[in-house]
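---------- Forwarded message ----------

FYI, see the Aspartyl/glutamyl-tRNA(Asn/Gln) amidotransferase subunit B record below. Original note from H. follows.
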Amino acid sequence: MDELLDYDEAMALFDPVLGLEVHVELNTASKMFCGCANHFGAEPNSNTCPVCLGLPGALPAVNATAIESAIRIGLSLNCDIATWCRFARKNYFYPDMTKDFQTSQYDEPLCFEGHVDVEVDGRTFRIAVERAHMEEDAGKLVHAGASGRIHGADYSLVDYNRAGTPLIEIVTKPVRGTGSMAPQVAKAYVAALRDTMRALGVSDVKMEQGSLRCDANVSLMPKGSDVLGTRTETKNVNSLRSIEAALTYEIRRQAAILACGGRVKQETRMWHEEGYTTAGRSKEEAEDYRYFPEPDLVPVAPSREWVEQLRSTLPENPAAKRVRLAAEWGMTEREFGDVLAADALDLIEATVAAGASPASARKWWLGELARVANAEGVELAAVGLTPAQVAEVQGLVDGGVVNDKLARQVIEGVLAGEGSPAEVVERRGLKVVSDDGALSAAVDAAIAADPDAAAKIRDGKVAAAGALIGSVMKAMRGQADAGRVRELILEKLS
């Protein structure tokens, strides 16, 4: 295992410098340079053609929607948009790219010189974006073996479905001045990019599926120095928590080496979810990718009119939207923080738009539905209930058709495929009983069964009504109107 320096000790000796490269897969219908379906989860090698397989004589054509998405991304990151740029061939041995080069952008990115502001613990950090350029993704290697990694694998299989997927790579300039907050700032930055892509609708940004992933670079400078240290690049980190943890580990590892007079090797590192990084390949010497302009593609030259038209389609800034919704919904900082932590903001917003109050929408998504999601090991958005259905459930509660307890059974029925919330109520017979005749008989039975509680109520101890209400609710399988039951008890015993 690596020697690690205590984090606080590391921060007393060194200043971290970050460099973040975030890859975003676009959700266009087809791939970047061919007409193959751009769809995650298809049968291996089923979404392929001569172009994305690099067969001789196959000619690429640029996906116009991908260009549009890239420009909208650049505008959202406060970038300048090039008036003219080209694609280039990046020559490299790609075992998962049959043509052995990647079509990318080299010295002429479409989007450049932008910035993103993020807030961490009340401080605002401006992250300078050097470039956001277009390229195609590589395929995927599947390593057969217990570890699922190339080390120790019996053999490897190649799935070319992902090869040619439209990709935007967003590269920061060196990020200085974050101090001990560097890992949290990196996490907040990637979270901000994820929220922006989701708001734009250009990617599903599912980090666990690789549609958004981060290469996290970090180096250390001795306190008081302005000379950049040797960096390492932790590749393809695919969760926000892991970005923070991987950078924290690398800072401690590098600090331990430097504090003992050693030298950090410039290399890629692999992040292991157990909580550590391991060496990948050396990057101590500059690699010659032999870039040259792609001869089979025409340059991209977006008109200023088109760029401004796309600017007009940009959604509300996610950070500004959060501030607005928190105020409109009247939630405390802690309540709203819980919404963000659960990744439930969009779900609650859609539920409110469907007619529920913010408080009730938050109650269902962070309560019963979060419990279901945790039990099934899925994201909250994948539990199987739509915001409109949640709003309908709450409408049944507001209308006195069901109470909260019965509403949970309604949700259970909807998730089981028994129909809409209203249909589940009818099929399961879940309506609240508010008929005075039935309730009065149940109240009389409860009073007879618990004379002590009845005596206390007659003596003015109204709180004792809770026991009788509980008895009635139990007898009527939770379907009694609790408010009316209380009224009848007090009427009979006053």
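H. also flagged this: The chain has three domains: 7-308, 318-428, 436-493.
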